[in-house]
Amino acid sequence: ACCIIATIDHFSGAPSLAKVTVALVALLCFINSYDGEFVFDDSEAIVNNKDLKPTTPLSNIWRNDFWGSNLSSNSSHKSYRPLTVLTFRLNYLLAGGLHPVGFHMLNIILHAVISALMIDVFAILIGGLSYDEKGSILNHAPKTSLLAALFFAAHPVHTESVAGIVGRADLLCALFFQLSFLTYCKAFNRDDRFSVQWVVVSLLLCAAAMLCKEQGITVLGVNAAFDVLLICNVNVYELSQSEMLRTGLPTRLALMGLGGLSMLYARWRIMGTGPPAFTEVDNPASFAENIFLRIVNYNYYYSLNAWLLLCPWWLCFDWSMGCVPLIKSATDWRMVWLLLLWCVLIGLINQALLSKAILTLAADQMKTLTLGLVLLVVPFLPACNVFFRVGFVIAERVLYLSSAGYCLLLAYSLGLCCCRWTKYRKLLCASVLALLCVYIARCALRSHQWRSEQSLFTSALPVCPLNAKVHYNVGKNLADRGNATAAVGYYREAVRLHPTYVHAMNNLGNILKERNELTEAEQLLSKAVSIQPDFAAAWMNLGIVQNSLQKFEEAEKSYWNAIRFRKKYPDCYYNLGRLYADQNRHVDALNAWRNATVLKPDHSLAWNNMVILLDNTGNLGQAEMIGREALRIIPNDHTIMFSLANVLGKLQKYKESEGFFLHALRINPNSASCHGNLAVLYHRWGKLELAKKHYELSLKLDPEAPGTRDNYNMLRRKLDQLKRQTP
């Protein structure tokens, strides 16, 4: 306790040292996530986002959403964050590809910078705005602002924003939010005048924050509250008095209002087709028919968000799909949390806004409390479901800015307690030290869980055991790592918890298909497409299963349904071609595979099947032409080289055939079939010793290779005859 008192006393007197300390604490909390993988939403926003690649025109980031989809598409989430995507692209260029270390390090550094800047923000909100003789802003609350910044730097609810790379949007938004606020403060000098230029710069920084994440526009509300309460020195209790009309305030509010409306209008125009369409799974409370239950559940979500700020122990990467069951009755015991939340809020609002200073708190304390509430509530407003429906139940990342208001209130309350209860000062300081240590430990543990999808998904099981998406993601991760048997159990649990979970049905059906449990796979996939008729992947997988069950007509219909719902579906054309080949509809098969290669020029399987089919039907010249065309597009594909080499051998172009076989073996030296067919080529060519060598290599790699042993025995007999004939 004495140590933390001395440390804060020492560092608070040295602003630069205080910022370095806060930044180091921020680094300490999250540094162990620096070598993490791309996890969860990183796959869509970064790994599969073409806007990051240098080959994609830079202008695309201004036309597409955060996930790389065109904003005019009905499937777009309308998350317009081009500046965030631009930083991802810079990471990609600097690292020379998708290497997660650089992405993670930038997130951690951004959090450290934001945490350090929070000292300046808190200093103004707590101690007010004043200047020294040189025109620099004075910090009248160095200890409290430092303590609040330490709480912010180490708050575990920030883990998703820092350790998850897609949290870059929240970090950049927070950085420009701070800069907009601090720039707005610069608009006021010591002569009670204000600078329109600095207000305009603040609006531009607000626009930049909004281009990182939509939440950035809320800085205008914080700026307005700061102006009214600290610059104009107005208490809400005195709003009717003339202080409210202080010279310049209407102008500044008009500028911010006009700027905010312009940004909202531009944002709406950019969205193109209107707001995004979310499903009941994303936000079940917003689909409740009863308006009373809708309001009740929204407020319950608010109480859970408040609890995450107060006790950030139970953290989860996803809170949807049954993780938070709906309140359906006024007798539900969880109603207590709503009442408690509003009792606390009303109490705070009463102290901050509606009580005369002489009765409760001093005027400065009331303003600080009010600004703390503003910083807590205003950044959260876009996520509160009041203005528009959001696509989540709870999202820890949206609390990144709101947590600053909570940290301010917490530090300020502790400061007041230390001043009033001096005999308990050491106990309070010891409690603060313990809380910071717990925060740091929890951050370290949670950021470690974010290092891989396996640890992230499994960490959610005890927090949200009723969340079908958690079980689905655990199962998918297991399946991706080759443990399909364990994955089946999690997929089944996901379907049990959410009986209309079509993605879980599709993945479970795929595993059952590979295990040859075709009847159940067909039932699951049929149910999936009946629930979601435009689910193209499920239609294709259903076609594959039906083909295996020799239900050829049904399989063909399923494939065409998949193509109808996804026009550019090369894999489906490939599987349709296989169906036609099984039915000896060779022309239809070739046309289907050709469509696959048109849609996806590097579709190796489609090219190879065309070569093989033409070879098997005796069209050797056409097979050669297709094989050479394929290798111009995919020059290092050893399977196409192998098939083309076979064709050239049959055309007695032995030298070219040999070259392709040897090239294929340099790429894949352990291919028994390639060694075996090269041996057949040498056998025909008359190079018997080379044939013998490659037959032996083929048999060594695969003793059961069909036909190879018979050919080898035939060659040995011929060699023996030649030896006997040699004098």
Automatic annotation (TrEMBL):
Kindly give the InterPro entries that the UniProt entry links to this protein: O-mannosyl-transferase_TMTC, TMTC_DUF1736, TPR-like_helical_dom_sf, TPR_rpt
Q: Where in the cell is it found?
A: Endoplasmic reticulum; Membrane
Topology with respect to the bilayer: Multi-pass membrane protein
Which species is this UniProt entry from?
Answer: Sphaeramia orbicularis
As recorded in UniProt, its EC number(s) are 2.4.1.109
**Which Pfam families does its entry note?**
TMTC_DUF1736 (PF08409), TPR_16 (PF13432), TPR_17 (PF13431), TPR_19 (PF14559)
**Is Metal-binding among the key words of this record?**
no
The Gene Ontology CC terms held by the record are: endoplasmic reticulum; membrane
Which protein are we looking at? dolichyl-phosphate-mannose--protein mannosyltransferase
| Family the UniProt entry places it in | Belongs to the TMTC family.
Keyword annotations for this protein? Endoplasmic reticulum, Membrane, Repeat, TPR repeat, Transferase, Transmembrane, Transmembrane helix
Q: Where are the TPR repeats?
A: 468-501, 502-535, 536-569, 570-603, 638-671, 672-705
Please provide, alphabetically and separated by semicolons, the GO molecular function terms listed in this UniProt record. dolichyl-phosphate-mannose-protein mannosyltransferase activity
What pathway or pathways are given for this protein in its record? Protein modification; protein glycosylation
Its transmembrane ranges are 108-131, 195-212, 219-237, 298-315, 335-359, 371-392, 398-417, 424-441
